[in-house]
Design a protein that fits this description.
Among the domains are: 54-66 and 73-129, no CATH class; 132-200, no CATH class. The protein has eleven helices and no strands. It is mostly helical and 200 residues long.
Length: 200
């Protein structure tokens, strides 16, 4: 009898172990996995939000660069330093639509962090130093850059970042190589030539 009892106990233990194993993870393990999945989703959402915010800042900066010529020797920086009342008085002689366009540019500029504002000022100074016809080419390239599909825009932006690190002779050599020219259309190469030193 003791032998049978021992066998029966062993059999019961085996059955219970199999039942426990087949039941899947413990509720605590399931909760931990769910928490980890949620944390990963939260992190991905935060990364996406940061990327979108960065894109909005870049778009606002490019819009500020693309502002129409300002009247009476005014600059974007001077307008940004004025009170709303002073700005309204300075722009009073302009058509309402143009007043709104300039005011929107100023507000976009004011919403940016200080380092981005400083970068825009540097870019505007570079643009003002260009001959008028070249300045218009740059503005046109900026418009094309703004509406470029995002995957391609990322590639162009990365290339502009790299070109900005090269001296003139190095850049000419780099851009003349077949390996470079095979990756970009003639229009994209012209755009990069126009925006080099302006963007980013």
């Amino acid at each position: 009898m003791p032998i049978h009892r021992n066998c029966l106990s062993a059999l019961l233990m085996a059955v219970m172990s199999a039942a426990i194993l087949s039941a899947g993870p413990w509720p605590q393990q399931e909760q931990e996995k769910a928490d980890q999945d949620q944390a990963r989703r939260d992190m991905q959402a935060a990364d996406k939000a940061r990327a979108q915010a960065a894109n909005e800042q870049v778009r606002a900066a490019q819009q500020a660069l693309n502002a129409p010529n300002l009247p009476g020797g005014l600059t974007l920086q001077r307008l940004a330093q004025m009170s709303p009342e002073e700005r309204a008085a300075a722009l009073a002689n302009l058509p309402p639509a143009r007043q709104k366009t300039i005011e929107d540019k100023v507000q976009n500029y004011l919403s940016l962090p200080a380092d981005q504002q400083a970068r825009i000022m540097r870019q505007l100074e570079k643009m003002q130093a260009l001959p008028p016809d070249k300045r218009e080419d740059v503005r046109q390239s900026l418009r094309e850059y703004q509406i470029m599909p995002q995957p391609r825009k990322t590639v162009i932006t990365r290339e502009l970042n790299y070109l900005a690190t090269l001296a003139d002779e190095q850049r000419s050599n780099y851009m003349s190589k077949p390996a470079f020219r095979s990756r970009f259309s003639e229009a994209e190469i012209q755009l990069m030539n126009n925006l080099r030193g302006i963007v980013p």
